[in-house]
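Long-time lurker, first post.

We've been arguing in lab meeting about whether zinc ion would sit comfortably in this protein at all. Half the group thinks yes, half thinks no, and nobody has a model to point at. So I'm putting the question to the forum: if I give you the sequence and the SMILES, can you give me back a predicted structure of the complex? Inputs are below. Any interpretation is welcome too.
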Amino acid sequence: MSRKESAPANDGETRHAPGQSIDRGRIEAAVSEILAAIGEDPTRPGLVSTPERIAQAYSEFFEGLAVDPLSHLTGSAEFPEGSEELGELVLLRDIDFRSICEHHLLPFTGVAHIAYVPRTRIVGLGKLPRVVETLAARPQLQERLTEEIADALQTGLDPLGLLVVLDATHACVWSRGVRQLNSSTVTMATRGTLSEATERTEIMALIGSARSEVAS
Ligand SMILES: [Zn+2]
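Top reply:
Settle the argument with this. Predicted structure of the protein with zinc ion, as tokens:
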């Protein structure tokens, strides 16, 4: 497990201007070139539409580049500090995500768990997966994605404490190189009160516990 609390290189802002579209024509040309480079015929029937399909897929994979993750948190509800409506802890487990490893342009997929201790703001639970989805739809590293999710939530919600855990399997690990089929990578980012070891341990137990245990 790797855990990082250092300041990330990127603060979660968009990496190219909103509205700047992905150049599908360039992707198609590049994919044709790759197919030719491996000795295939890009014009044979099975491959003729492949560049177009890949361009479509890449547009989806990287659509988060043009989206500001903080835009999902603008509708947060504000309460006075200490208000009962805020609750003590919000924990959303098992948020499915898919991202693309920037070293190999292969997918890594898994689940995110997000916990925060509200200060004055809470947000609709559906907004947290949107933040994850936006930041995951960029060329990423799991460690940086974890930090960027934490930074966006810290900025957008200003909680007293925050914990983000990502548990993912990487296609670049199971499909090539060492080919570890069953290994998953866990990364964690914490802020504020949830950086403390005892608090963190408690949340990790909640994340790891069976639903039935938590339900009561
Ligand atoms: Zn990789």
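For your lab meeting: The pocket of zinc ion is lined by residues 101, 103-104, 106, 170, 172 (CB under 6 Å). Residues 1-12, 212-216 have pLDDT under 50 and may be disordered. Whichever side wins, do check it experimentally.
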